[in-house]
Amino acid sequence: DIRMTQSPASLSASLGETVNIECLASEDIYSDLAWYQQKPGKSPQLLIYNANSLQNGVPSRFSGSGSGTQYSLKINSLQSEDVATYFCQQYNNYPNTFGAGTKLELK
Amino acid sequence: QIQLVQSGPELKKPGESVKISCKASGYTFTDYAMHWVKQAPGKGLKWMGWINTYTGKPTYADDFKGRFVFSLEASASTANLQISNLKNEDTATYFCARNTDYYPYVMDAWGQGASVTVSS
Questions:
Q1: Euclidean distance between the first and final Cα of chain A, in Å?
Q2: What is the distance in angstroms between the Cα of A51 and the nearest Cα belonging to chain B?
Q3: Which residues of chain A make contact with B110, given a CB cutoff of 8 A?
Q4: What is the DSSP secondary structure assignment for residue B66, as one 8-state letter?
């Protein structure tokens, strides 16, 4: 199975800041990468697919980038409602696998 | 709007069985595959498998072969997950999640989760 390594495991940022979360795949996943946001006590919600395509209804302050084995999620101008855990998922190889998550808190 | 509504929390003893339901609304149920995802307390997401909602054919990830059964009540737009011979390590929240119509294994709508606690 492809291993997805997220970093950092947790981070603390201030309102209005820009935040970057990284995801490293154990092999090339050819941009078959999605990002999900899970707010405390809620179910995950799809943010990004195909590494950089924004899901309908997701605010434009979220963006994704990367290729090969290295991917990132960027949140511009952090809002209080962005407090959540973020997961990356590769779907290039069977079975699809998730990263362990990055917990984002407000400073 | 698209909704996946799951059944309520369950408290079970080891060796018992549990059935979790996931009722879909707001779209044509048989047009989209349904996935099941496990989240143990304080842990990440683990994909369990999926079911073809048109044919009813299930596919199980390796770690979920044997005690786990995906089924449908298509007339009721409902997908079910049954777990038999429950073990302590089955304690988790189980999510159903709809596949997108553009990429396999990408999940664009999720149920609220069904909590299963296994304890003697």
A1: 36
A2: 12
A3: 43-45
A4: S
Choosing among A43, A58, A90, A97, which should be mutated to test the B contact, i.e. which has the most B CBs within 10 A? Answer: A43
Q: What is the mean pLDDT of residues A49-53?
A: 98
Q: What is the CA radius of gyration of chain B?
A: 14
Q: How far apart are the first and last CA of chain B?
A: 40
Give the mean model confidence (pLDDT) for residues A81-106: 98
Alpha-carbon distance B30 to B67, whole Å? 25
The pLDDT tens digits of the residues spanning B27-79 come to 999 999 999 999 999 999 999 999 999 999 999 999 999 999 999 998 899 99
In A, which residues are within 8 Å of B32 by CB distance? none
Q: Which residue of chain A is at minimal alpha-carbon distance from B64?
A: A95
